């Protein structure tokens, strides 16, 4: 009788420990909303979705370099200069502008050092930003759609007939 | 060796690749200045070993200058032989890798995928040219050298085998530029760091598949030979004999 209860408790305990450890592995740290604590509450949904600003107006280097680029405060100001400081976040932007300081955005996606990736060639091949980054125009925070792991890259490379040679992406 | 259909497929895929990279080393021009060695270190984030590590045989060089002394003082002649990975078509290092970290690219490069490497060093033992170098320690650079690392080349950690890549990062960017303009890579457009820095132009790099490229012409020269040709490794580096010999 007691042996049975002990067994059940042990099984439950082991199960909960396994679930806990499994959850830690399955959730990347970047997936947690806590991580998305940007210095300004910038909304892609507002800028790309409602206002319909093209991705490459702000991420200017996407077609010509490996990195897409994060806009400078000066680029924000091209529009925000003529806008009123309606929200606390817009006021904060003006403080950065007046202090001549860059906004210390927190980068959520970072490829490992042994991976070579270039935005330039992917856009040249005709991919759109949403193919990899998801429906950014509906995301209020920082977009983090897929895992950006090798299997995910290779699925597309296989389907589109792109190179699957290791040294195309590994350096 | 057994004939399996997949291997044949793999072979035909390789033959279909538009490029086949080749290097020619003109020994008559080499003055042994080692500018190529320095350029290679700077370009490829190669760890700088101190005196102690070097004495223990733990120093890493992707290209080295072998010296041959002939005659007795004062009639001494020194002959130089730059040796880098020969990017063999039948590379002894490739079949022995248990995790496929060492493999042949369709463009004829003998590649090492660092993040796959588990450091068993079979490849290094099997390389007759001693071109493969093992990281016995984690990399370190004296300040401020750590600030000048090349972002296009990964920094290899301890326990990983590394070797000459023919500056694959430069090949990649050259190919991308050509692809965007819808053309083939021009002869001389891609230069590995060693080729670029050679003051006497002893090193020439190019595409073997292009019949008009400089390497295609030079490798047909009567002076041409391969290192340890009898091993049947079919290297992609052709050496040209000294004229004075």
Structural summary, described in words:
The complex is a heterodimer of chains A (171) and B (245). Chain A is mainly alpha-helical. Chain A has a domain at 62-69 and 109-171. Chain A has helices at residues 2-26, 44-50, 55-58, 73-80, 88-99, 119-124, 129-133, 150-160, 166-169. In chain A, helix 4 crosses helix 5. The longest helix of chain A has 25 residues, at 2-26. The mean pLDDT of chain A is 86. Chain B has a four-stranded mixed β-sheet. In chain B, strands 2-3 form a two-stranded antiparallel ribbon. A two-stranded antiparallel ribbon of chain B has the order 4-5. Mean pLDDT of chain B is 90; it is low at 1-15. With 245 residues, chain B is of the alpha+beta class. Chain B has helices at residues 5-16, 35-43, 51-55, 122-126, 168-180, 193-197, 214-218, and strands spanning 21-26, 63-70, 77-84, 102-104, 110-112, 133-134, 161-162, 203-207, 224-225, 237-240. Chain B has one domain (19-240): Alpha-Beta Plaits (2-Layer Sandwich). In chain B, a hairpin with a 6-residue loop joins strand 2 (63-70) and strand 3 (77-84). Classes of the chains: A mainly alpha (171), B alpha+beta (245). Chain A binds chain B through residues 112-114, 116, 118, 120-121, 124, 165-168, 170-171, and chain B through 103, 105-106, 109, 111, 113-116, 152-155, 168-169, 172, 176, 179-180.
